[in-house]
Design goal:
The chain is mainly alpha-helical. 67% of the residues lie in helices and 6% in strands. Strand 1 and strand 2 form a beta hairpin. The N and C termini lie far apart (77 Å).
């Protein structure tokens, strides 16, 4: 006996285009809710849940997040450059003030405490930027040392030591 086929359109096998899949991923990243994503994209929620567990979904999420991060970083660089140019202009030419007597805008020198604050903030930020690669390198060497130690402990634990063989262990402090 053959099973009767369903006439309900919800159970019809659908083939989704790559563009629809990417739209579903980007919509989910923006909304953060699977039910809302299903409503917006008109893709069944069960299909979205299956897709979310697949590898291509995770790769698409990472790729879209990386692109968004690069876009944001580019915008931040533009803003920082404009801000640095404005600070440089004010340090060189002074702050703009309105002179009520003459009715003109006059440049007055920047106060010493403001210049000191600007310089210390910028030097602190520059120090953080230059220290970050050094810190990552230190963390990498520590991870390498811990990995070597774990390998040595695994070798040590796997060996069966007899009572006749003396154990000589040297510990090097680096």
């Amino acid at each position: 006996m053959k099973r009767p086929k369903s006439k309900d359109r919800r159970y019809k096998t659908q083939h989704w285009t790559q563009n629809q899949k990417l739209q579903a991923v980007s919509t989910w990243l923006m909304l953060g809710n699977m039910a809302e994503t299903a409503i917006v994209t008109s893709i069944p929620i069960q299909t979205l849940k299956v897709w979310k567990t697949s590898d291509w979904w995770k790769e698409a999420c990472l790729q879209l997040q990386q692109e968004d991060l690069q876009h944001t970083t580019a915008k931040l660089k533009k803003i920082v450059n404009k801000a640095l140019l404005a600070v440089e202009d004010r340090l060189d030419l002074g702050d703009a003030m309105y002179d009520q007597k003459t009715g003109a805008i006059v440049r007055i020198p920047v106060k010493a405490h403001v210049a000191l604050k600007i310089s210390t903030e910028l030097l602190t930020k520059q120090q953080h930027l230059t220290d970050r690669p050094v810190q990552q390198e230190v963390e990498k060497t520590i991870d390498d040392r811990l990995l070597k130690l774990s390998e040595e402990f695994a070798k040590f634990a796997s060996k069966k030591l007899s009572n006749e063989v003396p154990i000589d262990v040297e510990v090097k402090v680096v």
